[in-house]
Design a protein that fits this description.
By secondary structure, the protein is an alpha+beta fold. The chain is about 35% helix and about 30% strand. The protein has seven helices and seven strands, in the order αβαααβββαβαββα. It has a seven-stranded mixed sheet with strand order 1-2-3-4-5-7-6, with helices on both faces. Helix 2 packs across helix 4.
């Protein structure tokens, strides 16, 4: 890892084009706080996610969005949302980037009516590819709550390597036990991969 590589990653995050993630994607703005709160108010959507602001209120979501915008200016974060044709938020993706480590993490969720339709698996694979190509990181790390079977299946189907159980720190200072996985850029591009 060199200082030049870190600088390149920070620049890539600042200039990232989230529309390449797919139709309906854009960066979240403070005006999206209410619509994001509507998405996250459903415990089926938000409860498994450790890094959301708590409690979930219009104000905490707005500050979360503003923090993501500040993180993007520093080259360390992105908050993308996907809207349906009616303008309602279907999903969000939060990318945390550690340019000094050439590593990134993604967290996100789909609206309940969009779950179990194959969108999560396809969207996750597209997001991982986008992170390696657009953010130019060498490593992606992901986590899932111990009881989050749906996310674990998506992650394992993408070919991530399981690294064990770790404590994930929540924004309120509490911890959550999490299954953890990693994928390197080299392994993602490997022709031996059985990703579908």
């Amino acid at each position: 890892m060199t200082g030049e590589e870190e600088t390149q990653i920070r620049a890539a995050v600042r200039m990232a084009d989230v529309t390449l993630l797919g139709s309906g994607y854009r960066l979240a703005t403070a005006k999206d706080a209410g619509a994001l709160l509507d998405l996250l108010a459903d415990p089926e959507v938000s409860d498994p996610i450790y890094d959301l602001p708590r409690p979930l209120t219009h104000e905490t979501i707005k500050h979360w969005i503003l923090a993501a915008q500040k993180g993007q200016r520093k080259g360390e974060a992105l908050l993308a949302i996907m809207e349906d044709k009616s303008g309602k938020i279907v999903s969000y993706s939060y990318f945390t980037v550690w340019p000094e480590l050439s590593a990134a993490e993604i967290a996100g969720a789909y609206r309940r009516d969009a779950q179990s339709m194959g969108m999560g698996k396809a969207g996750a694979a597209r997001s991982f590819e986008w992170m390696f190509e657009q953010l130019d990181v060498r490593l992606i790390a992901v986590t899932a709550a111990l009881d989050n079977v749906r996310s674990a299946k998506v992650i394992e189907a993408a070919g991530f390597v399981y690294t064990g159980i770790h404590d994930s720190k929540r924004s309120d200072g509490t911890t959550r036990r999490s299954h953890c996985w990693e994928m390197t850029r080299e392994n993602w591009r490997s022709p031996e991969s059985d990703r579908q």
